Amino acid sequence: MSGLSKSPWIFHYDASSCNGCDIEVLACLTPVFDVERLGVVNTGNPKHADIFLVTGAVNEQSRSVIENLYNQMPDPKVVVAVGICAATGGIFRECYNVSGGVDKVIPVDVHVPGCAARPEAIIDGVVQALGVLEKKRTEMTAAGGGADKPMQLEKERQ
Ligand code: SF4
């Protein structure tokens, strides 16, 4: 994490979770694990976020919401699928309205295993996401599109 140029801001969405994985995500933010002391901030606005944490399987209601939230995030961005439901649909995968994992809708960069995913595994997934984020930022800069460019365009549109 020493190469970080800024603190990662996270946006969490429950796609159709049983709430087990969501409770573990919250546990990362509360005093026992307290990731905010490491600079990780949980934001309620996708336009401010670098990392998209998704729990639960994709169903017919959450599909368009996931896509919409993802498209609102500025580049570079990283998607972390938390728990087995977000990876494959998990125990809900054969339900009539479940399409499967998050990668059925948007590209997933990091998978966090578990049912429910443990806080230590979620934090490890976020640390992996930071590496992916840094790599994407470097590639964008090398391609001539500064990492801040989409954000500036977004601000100009407002
Ligand atoms: S992986 Fe397990 S705990 Fe997490 S949402 Fe699915 S069923 Fe619930």
Q: Helix coverage percent of residues?
A: 25-40%
Structural class given helices, strands, pairing?
Answer: alpha/beta
Report the β-strand fraction as a percent range.
15-25%
Distance from first to last alpha carbon: 33 Å
Which series of helices and strands comes N to C? EHEEEHEHEEHH
Biggest sheet architecture:
5 strands, parallel
**Bound compounds, please?**
iron/sulfur cluster
Uncertain segments: 152-158
Number of helices: 5
> What is the strand arrangement across the widest sheet?
2-1-3-5-7
What would you call the shape?
globular
Rg over C-alpha atoms, rounded to the nearest angstrom: 15 Å
Q: Could you tell me the mean pLDDT?
A: 89
Count of strand segments: 7
Question: How would you describe what is shown here?
Answer:
The chain is an alpha/beta fold and 158 residues long. The protein is built from five helices and seven strands; from the N terminus they run βαβββαβαββαα. The protein has a five-stranded parallel sheet. Iron/sulfur cluster binds next to helix 1 and helix 3.
Please outline the helices and strands.
Elements: E1 9-14, H1 20-29, E2 41-42, E3 51-55, E4 58-59, H2 62-72, E5 78-82, H3 84-88, E6 98-100, E7 110-112, H4 119-142, H5 149-157
Parallel strand pairs: 1-2, 1-3, 3-5, 5-7
Antiparallel strand pairs: 4-6
Keywords for this entry:
five-stranded parallel beta sheet; binds iron/sulfur cluster; 16% strand; two-stranded antiparallel sheet; 158 residues; 5 helices; single chain; disordered C terminus; alpha/beta
Q: Would you summarize the structure shown here?
A:
This protein is α/β, with parallel strands linked by helices and 158 residues long.
